[in-house]
């Protein structure tokens, strides 16, 4: 009997464990049908950067797609189901596979800002759970599927900036949960369906820049939640503005520019919330209604119509008005100065009054408006007999203040004598502690349909809105630069800083902030309107952040019941079995890793490059002691080592968990093993053993150019020595572009990647981010660029490469031009949030350029400095075609050097006393604990007015 009981107990334990293990395995495995769907999606996409190569074939969402988010959730069947598919801005092409419809639990599909062609698969309309469809910024064509109109939970449909055509489906009247409909910048045609008026939750209807025609449905006034309607640049030829629109009391913005409208302007006094009105470039006639407008209104643009009569008095009591444009009409009579006299202007407020090309005869009242007011009167009769004082001033083509804006850094001048530790750190503009340095997140952001026309008065309010949405403090958000694009749309460079006293975000915060932007979880703000996320490229030190799948830890009720019942009986047995399983898995993983390491080592056996052992490296560095460390970078630490034959070497050791290390490791070995030039650093060997990765270089006793230009450097470089360093660097890069086989684009030229030997000869280093130049295509033509993800260092990156992802030889020219400016000024590429290119350009145009030349450079020929400076600024032109080639750069530097005296070349007395100097990818020879990172991303140029102090 005892034996039977033991057998029964054993059976129960085994069965319980099997149930537990089966449920556990299924709860960590993606549904097989969805695995096949994801495989089909992968096959349909062309991925030039091989983003999807790391995708696990067995369980796609158990691993990241090298930066792609593939979120899962657990279903009632115990399987993981794909919930979010986020692949924005990855340079993908190809088409969207119809198998996407099999992802039946999908809530977010995001393929924004790629090059995907073909049509939108109708199968998307079968995913009843979907909440966000974000396909804007591609090359999609064809019509919108009717099936999309039957998605009950769709909140946002963004298909703008594609090549879509055909009518807007009437089925969209069923989108009862949709709040955002963005169809702008396509070729949609036909009538706006009046049925859309049935939509109860639509907030923003953005349909501008299409081929829509017919009449404007008066029924749209019945949309109870509508706040923004933007229909600019369509073809409603002959249609009139329905009088019912004047009753839309909750509307913030009505924009009907260039729509072929005729008739008169209806009474708009019922629009109690109106902030923005644009009816310009139509064929509207009659007089401007004299009814009182909303006191909230900021912009009124009625220009380029056929309006007659006088300017009504109701424009004189609009306290928040920023822009009143009545130009190019048939208006007559007088202008009342009460329009500006009744306003109270704050320090950032501005009012533009454009009355050009009418029949206005005079100004009633004071003709001395405040400085905040810009008036344009050209083309009116009053300009011909300007008897009143100051009227002639307004009759020219004066256009007022520039509409671009830039925040200047609100830090005390005490910060000017300090510097942040690396190029990736900036002063936090509004930090509670003065001159505090931190590494921000850089975000390229655009307001798609704002309800204002001048941003500075609302920058602070906007920053507070973002801070509140992200659960951050106000000082952590900073609008670094903003400018208006056609639309008008407001584009800006945002900086988000970590909270003091941290100077870097942790990974979870990076993921949280990015997820907020990527999934539109901000509360809706009708004043700022809908936004575009154009770029969330992670710069150093966040370039190694991996967006791992966020798998739910929750388990279905069915699975939970089985687990609870089984676990009561077999907790001890399961613990023991799991212990055995874990030990075996660890052993298997270890052997697999060892095999993988041995395999990778066998694959990179290269002639002339020695394969060192870990033991040899430990002996060379006294077991990697702190006294041997001479620097640290994003890849890892750098050590000075002495080999058995007394050769002094620099050893770059990858830090544990360096997620980009393997690729950069192999890239650097591959490139440097076949590159031989006196101005390129030499690779002597590598170590790839027992989970360690090391690169062994020739030792460069004088460290990096960044060290020598640092304010902390005790030594200085003469002007001629700087020219030689510039020429050596240019020759090294010219070799990469023209003589290497195949040619190479470096992609990360910066002062910390230019090393100096014992005689201060320059050698270009760090090829971890380099890319092979393009090869001839099937037609035999040679493309001039490589399409690739943006990588590099803030302040050095080619702005055109940042915007287009097209990497060219001229991208390296731009980066080297920044180095030239550093050689001349001693400044960092980014100082206190200011970009060196913009700063030097402003000083150059202002005629004060010699005031920013590095005063540690000694005596120099002003003619040579001017030529060198002119060359540097040509290299840093925003437009690629305006930059010289690298061969032209070398030739010009040689000409400048020929004008100098060789006796001017001198080595500092302490040249031989730099045993601690840094080596490839390090940051500071004199302060080895400073960190310099390899990064991905770019920095938008600053627009600040120069406030420059030479070192």
Write a structural description.
With 951 residues, this protein is of the alpha/beta class. Among the domains are: 2-25 and 567-597, no CATH class; 237-344 and 351-400, Leucine-rich repeat, LRR (right-handed beta-alpha superhelix); 405-535; 703-932, Transferase(Phosphotransferase), domain 1 (Orthogonal Bundle), CATH 1.10.510. Helix content is 23%, strand content 19%. The protein contains 16 helices and 47 strands. It has a 14-stranded mixed beta sheet with strand order 2-3-5-6-8-10-12-14-15-17-19-21-23-25, with no helix packed on it. A seven-stranded mixed beta sheet has the order 33-37-38-36-35-34-47, sandwiched between helices. A five-stranded antiparallel beta sheet has the order 26-30-31-29-32, with helices on one face. The longest helix has 47 residues, at 557-603. The protein starts with a helix and ends in a 19-residue tail after the last strand. Residues 4-28, 56-60, 62-69, 398-404, 408-413, 547-603 and 909-951 have low confidence and may be disordered.
Number of separate helices: 16
CATH superfamily of the domain at 703-932: Transferase(Phosphotransferase) domain 1
Overall geometry comes to globular
Are there runs of 5+ residues with pLDDT below 50, and where?
4-28, 56-60, 62-69, 398-404, 408-413, 547-603, 909-951
Fraction in beta strands: 15-25%
The strand line-up of the biggest sheet is 2-3-5-6-8-10-12-14-15-17-19-21-23-25
Distance from N terminus to C terminus (CA atoms, Å) equals 93 Å
Strand count, sense and closure of the main sheet?
Answer: 14 strands, mixed
Q: Could you tell me the radius of gyration in angstroms?
A: 32 Å
Structural class determined from secondary elements? alpha/beta
Helical residue percent band: 10-25%
Q: Can you name the CATH architecture of the domain at 703-932?
A: Orthogonal Bundle
């Amino acid at each position: 009997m005892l034996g039977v009981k033991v057998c029964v107990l054993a059976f129960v334990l085994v069965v319980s464990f099997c149930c537990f293990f089966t449920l556990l395995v299924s709860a960590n495995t993606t549904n097989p049908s969805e695995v096949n769907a994801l495989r089909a999606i992968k096959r349909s996409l062309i991925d030039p950067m091989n983003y999807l190569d790391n995708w696990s074939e067995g369980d796609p969402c158990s691993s990241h797609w090298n930066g792609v988010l593939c979120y899962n959730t657990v279903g009632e069947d115990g399987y993981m189901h794909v919930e979010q598919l986020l692949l924005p801005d990855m340079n993908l092409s190809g088409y969207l596979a119809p198998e996407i419809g099999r992802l039946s639990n999908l809530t977010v599909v995001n393929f924004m800002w790629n090059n995907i062609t073909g049509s939108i698969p109708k199968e998307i309309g079968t995913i009843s759970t979907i909440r966000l469809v974000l396909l804007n910024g591609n090359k999609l064509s064809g019509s919108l599927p009717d099936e999309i109109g039957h998605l009950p939970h769709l909140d946002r449909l963004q298909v703008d900036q594609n090549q879509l055509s055909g009518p807007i489906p009437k089925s969209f009247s069923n989108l009862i949960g949709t709040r955002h409909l963005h169809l702008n910048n396509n070729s949609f045609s036909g009538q706006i369906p009046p049925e859309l008026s049935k939509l109860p939750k639509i907030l923003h209807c953005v349909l501008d820049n299409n081929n829509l025609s017919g009449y404007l449905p008066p029924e749209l006034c019945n949309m109870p939640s509508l706040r923004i309607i933007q229909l600019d640049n369509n073809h409603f030829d002959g249609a009139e503005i329905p009088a019912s629109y004047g009753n839309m009391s909750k509307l913030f913005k009505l924009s009907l520019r260039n729509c072929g409208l005729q008739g008169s302007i209806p009474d708009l006094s019922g629009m109690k919330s109106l902030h923005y009105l644009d009816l310009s470039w139509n064929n509207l006639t009659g007089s401007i209604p004299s009814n009182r407008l909303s006191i909230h209104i900021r912009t009124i643009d009625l220009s380029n119509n056929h309006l007659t009569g006088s300017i009504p008095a109701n424009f004189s009591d609009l306290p928040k008005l920023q822009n009143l444009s009545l130009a190019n009409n048939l208006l007559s009579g007088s202008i009342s100065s009460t329009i500006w006299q009744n306003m109270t202007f704050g320090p950032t407020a501005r009012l533009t009054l454009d009355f050009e090309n009418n029949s206005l005869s005079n100004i009633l009242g004071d003709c001395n408006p405040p400085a905040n007011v810009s008036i344009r009167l050209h083309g009116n009769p009053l300009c011909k007999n300007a008897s009143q004082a100051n009227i002639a001033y307004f009759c020219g083509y004066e256009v007022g203040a520039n509409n671009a804006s830039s925040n200047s850094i609100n830090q005390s001048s005490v910060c000017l004598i300090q510097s942040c530790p690396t190029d990736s750190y900036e002063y936090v503009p509004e930090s509670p502690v003065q001159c505090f340095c931190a590494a921000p997140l850089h975000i390229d952001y655009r307001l798609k349909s704002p309800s204002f026309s001048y941003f500075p008065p609302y920058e602070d309010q906007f920053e507070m809105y973002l801070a509140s949405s992200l659960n951050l403090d106000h000082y952590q958000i900073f609008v670094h630069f903003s400018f208006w694009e056609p639309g008008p749309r407001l584009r800006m460079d945002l900086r988000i800083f970590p909270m003091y006293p941290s100077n870097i975000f942790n990974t979870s915060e990076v993921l949280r902030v990015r997820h907020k932007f990527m999934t539109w979880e901000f509360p809706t703000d009708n004043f700022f309107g809908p936004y575009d996320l154009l770029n969330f490229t992670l710069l150093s030190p966040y370039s190694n952040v991996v967006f791992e799948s966020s798998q739910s830890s929750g388990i279905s009720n069915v699975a939970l019941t089985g687990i609870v019942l089984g676990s009561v009986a077999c907790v001890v047995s399961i613990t023991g079995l799991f212990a055995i399983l874990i030990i075996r898995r660890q052993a298997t993983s270890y052997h697999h890793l060892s095999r993988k390491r041995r395999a990778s080592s066998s694959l990179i056996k290269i002639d002339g490059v020695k394969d060192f052992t870990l033991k040899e490296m430990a002996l060379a560095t006294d077991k990697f002691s702190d006294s041997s460390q001479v620097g640290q970078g994003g890849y890892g630490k750098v050590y000075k080592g002495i080999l058995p034959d007394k050769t002094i070497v620099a050893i770059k050791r990858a830090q544990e968990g360096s997620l980009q290390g393997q690729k950069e490791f192999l890239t650097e070995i591959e490139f440097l093993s076949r590159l031989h030039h006196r101005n390129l650093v030499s690779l002597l060997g590598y170590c790839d053993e027992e989970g360690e990765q090391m690169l062994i270089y020739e030792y460069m006793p004088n460290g990096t150019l960044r060290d020598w230009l640092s304010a902390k450097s005790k030594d200085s470089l003469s002007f001629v020595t700087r020219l030689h360093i510039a020429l050596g660097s240019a020759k090294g890069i010219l070799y990469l572009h023209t003589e290497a086989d195949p040619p190479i684009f470096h992609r990360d030229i910066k002062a910390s990647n230019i090393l100096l030997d014992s005689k201060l000869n320059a050698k270009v280093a760090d090829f971890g981010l380099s890319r092979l130049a393009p090869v001839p295509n099937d037609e035999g033509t040679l493309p001039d660029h490589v399409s690739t993800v943006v990588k590099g260092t803030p302040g050095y990156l080619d702005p055109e490469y940042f915007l287009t992802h097209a990497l060219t030889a001229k991208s390296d020219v731009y980066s080297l031009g920044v180095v030239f400016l550093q050689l001349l000024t001693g400044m960092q590429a980014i100082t206190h949030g200011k970009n060196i290119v913009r700063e030097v350009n402003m000083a150059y145009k202002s005629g004060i350029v010699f005031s920013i030349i590095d005063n540690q450079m000694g005596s120099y020929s002003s003619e040579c400095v001017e030529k060198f400076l002119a060359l540097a600024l040509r290299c840093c032109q925003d437009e690629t075609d305006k930059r010289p080639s690298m061969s032209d750069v070398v030739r010009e530097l040689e000409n400048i050097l020929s004008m100098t005296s060789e006796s001017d070349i001198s080595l500092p007395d302490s040249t031989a006393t730099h045993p601690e100097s840094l080596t490839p990818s390090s940051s500071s020879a004199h302060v080895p604990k400073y960190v310099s990172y390899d990064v991905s991303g770019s920095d938008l140029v600053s627009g600040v007015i120069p406030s420059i102090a030479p070192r």
